[in-house]
Write a structure and sequence with these properties.
single chain, OB fold (Dihydrolipoamide Acetyltransferase, E2P), Rossmann fold, Ribonucleotide Reductase Protein R1, domain 1, six-stranded mixed beta sheet, 24% helix, binds guanosine-5'-diphosphate, binds magnesium ion, binds zinc ion
Amino acid sequence: MKGLVLKKHADQFVVLSGGKEECFVARKNLKKDGVFVGDYVEIEEGAICKIEKRKNLLVRPPLANIDKLLIVVAPVPKPDLYTVDKLLLFCKLNDITPILCINKSDLNIDFCKEIEKTYKTIVKTIIFSCLDESVLKLKSQIKGLCVLAGQSAVGKSSIVNALLKEDVAKVDTFSKKIERGKQTTRVVQIYSLGKDKFLADTAGFSKLDERLLNLDEREVKSYYPEFLPYAGACKYHSCLHLDGKNCGVFDAVQNGKISKTRYENYKKLVLTLKNFKKY
Ligand SMILES: Nc1nc2c(ncn2[C@@H]2O[C@H](COP(=O)(O)OP(=O)(O)O)[C@@H](O)[C@H]2O)c(=O)[nH]1
Ligand SMILES: [Mg+2]
Ligand SMILES: [Zn+2]
């Protein structure tokens, strides 16, 4: 019997199989590698005996086989677009489809549209609010295992609740903490929204930098599709677009053709990688 691991609880795993959820333990020989939430497993005699080959694996948060990453931002708390760009890069490296989810449109629609303008040519972008039915725009995007990522208090748990229409993920009710938020999602759990539609809440992605540090800084530019049309004007093919001299990308930034924040954050990442390799 085959199934999908939805949740881990001490030594037990909740597995969805044939439309039913049941608890199983893992065979001793599997304990070494570990069974992850998101794993497709084989069950025999009441125990998980085999883990199917994984498409990808995150260790923090512990999740396997992610198809889509819903990167959530909002007018409040103030978006950290550097992290958004790093998450987009992370998706490319791990065969994950990103969607930029701009939540809380009820608070400041112009601000949401500003972010959309920067990103809509780079990644699928959706503006909505969890306070009205616009949140349902997300529903049609859920396919395979979709995972919510983003700063604390952007509304990740609220999205899960809205899509499930029941209070499963605990929303932070300290409205005063809206600016800073509070982490209430500790265990990783997958919710089923129908056939092959799964959603997982997380308390955010930590140690993102560490996961990108192995990347060659010369490769980073190839993950910025908006640079491509202008890179031909650079004097050298190897141009990293870091300063203004003979650089088509730099000129495009000056002329407003490329987002300045995307470019500045690109430079920040390349310099971080360069510095890291010195030590
Ligand atoms: N105004 C407004 N508040 C929202 C919206 N979505 C979530 N919130 C509030 O933002 C706060 C943090 O939400 P929560 O879902 O716990 O964020 P998480 O930390 O990302 O899981 C809570 O007070 C929510 O009620 C929205 O669309 N509009
Ligand atoms: Mg939460
Ligand atoms: Zn250049």
